[in-house]
UniProtKB/TrEMBL annotation:
Ranges where the Peptidase M14 domain occurs: 16-310
Active site, renumbered: 287 (proton donor/acceptor)
GO molecular function terms noted in the UniProt entry: carboxypeptidase activity
Organism the protein comes from: Mariniflexile jejuense
Protein family (similarity comment): Belongs to the peptidase M14 family.
Record keywords, A-Z: Carboxypeptidase, Hydrolase, Metalloprotease, Protease, Zinc
InterPro entries tied to this protein: Peptidase_M14 (IPR000834)
Record protein name field: M14 family zinc carboxypeptidase
Length: 386
């Protein structure tokens, strides 16, 4: 099987330099698609609510069919960046990846929700979450995915997403940098033969990722919701894997996590190409810790404030709000909680040392207030990510 160090070298060699940071739209990938179309099949498979094209990319000639779709939620772009890194690699003359193209055929939808991508929103232009529209199929984007699922008839589905900075890998001070799920296919969450196949592939990816981000891989709880695309496809006996690109230390652009997703792609595709995946080796999946919501972006510890007329020492939690401003994603610090946060963790800690914490107007911080910096003991401290 492919070694992680070899995959990391491939990433450095084939990373798509035209895709950076978080704002990835149809305009971002259009020149890349035009270039790729000289070598592989790229087609317009539908249009969005606002008449933006939805593209499908077909690569490989093998019998094992794998359907991948990204940016079902328009503001979850890390997996899209890694898709183009993967395509560059597969179209190279690298001997390491040739078995994938011989054994597998991949069908990839790089941006399923182009309107949401343009607006940098989770929902589509009709304000519908496409990942809750699998049964009703009310939206054109949902119908596009369903049509490809029917015609391509995949053996595996890769449902590609991004997750917030709030998740920990279990009850630990470790961020869930990559998360997975083998979705349930019934209400009692039976570990079916079909789910075991998905679990086995996830276990292989987890083993690889432990070499680069130890204890930073999680799984989501498998509560069943047939309106979700993954649950629907799993319930139709197609092994389906949810990928979630999460936070790595100081990586708010998600360019480090992009590499970990790329490692996951290549590890899993290499395994599928060389293995008859039966699900017999699913057990390690059950040992991956379940995600918990234990992180804030910043915690200011031991701040003096006034509550109900009394002076107390407490903590302040700050979470970034991602906002599209002038074609760029800005991270706006917002106060989420003012309370004892001993059970929580943060990506950045600031120690107030029992002093008051003021905003730029020299007022004490309040819940829901937005502040790009704070003042502690007359020192100005930035709250923005590096």
């Amino acid at each position: 099987m492919m070694q992680v160090e070899a995959i990391k070298q491939l990433f450095l060699k084939h990373k798509e330099s035209h895709l950076q940071h978080r704002y990835i739209t149809h305009k971002s990938i259009k020149p890349l698609l035009e270039n790729l179309s000289k070598k592989i099949t790229i087609e317009t498979i539908g249009i969005s609510v606002l008449n933006n094209p939805i593209h499908g990319i077909k690569i490989g000639s093998g019998e094992k069919r794998i359907l991948m779709w990204s940016q079902m939620h328009g503001n979850e772009s890390t997996t899209t960046k890694a898709i183009f890194d993967l395509l560059n690699t597969l179209l190279s003359d690298e001997a390491l990846v040739s078995p994938i193209l011989k054994a597998c055929t991949l069908y990839i939808i790089p941006i399923l929700n182009p309107d949401g991508a343009l607006a940098y929103t989770r929902i589509n232009a009709n304000e519908v979450d496409l990942n809750r529209d699998a049964q009703n199929l009310t939206q054109p984007e949902s119908k596009v995915l369903r049509a490809i699922f029917k015609t391509f008839n995949p053996h595996f589905c890769y449902n590609l997403h991004g997750q917030r900075t709030i998740f920990s890998a279990g009850n630990t001070n470790k961020s869930a940098t990559v998360s997975f799920l083998a979705p349930a296919q019934d209400k009692v969450c039976t570990i079916t033969p079909n789910r075991k196949v998905a679990m086995e592939v996830i276990a292989v990816m987890n083993a690889a990722l432990q070499e680069v981000i130890p204890n930073q891989v999680g799984v989501y709880d498998d509560a069943f919701n047939l309106n979700c695309v993954g649950d629907t496809f799993q319930s139709e006996n197609v092994p389906t894997i949810l990928f979630e690109a999460g936070h790595y230390h100081n990586d708010y652009a998600r360019d480090c996590t992009r590499e970990f997703i790329y490692i996951s792609y290549l590890t899993s595709l290499d395994y599928i190409s060389k293995t008859d995946v039966t699900g017999v080796n699913y057990q390690p999946y059950l040992e991956i810790p379940e995600n918990e919501k234990l992180f804030f972006d910043i915690i200011i510890k031991d701040a003096k404030t006034i509550l109900d007329g009394k002076e107390i020492i407490t903590d302040i939690a700050i979470q970034y709000q991602e906002k599209l401003i002038g074609g760029k994603i800005n991270f706006i610090p917002k106060v989420e909680k003012i309370e004892n946060l001993d059970g929580y963790f943060a990506h950045k800690h600031i120690q107030a040392n029992k002093l008051e914490v003021f905003n730029n107007n020299m007022q004490l911080l309040k819940i829901d207030s937005e502040n790009v910096f704070v003042m502690i003991n007359n020192e100005k401290i930035s709250l923005l990510p590096k």
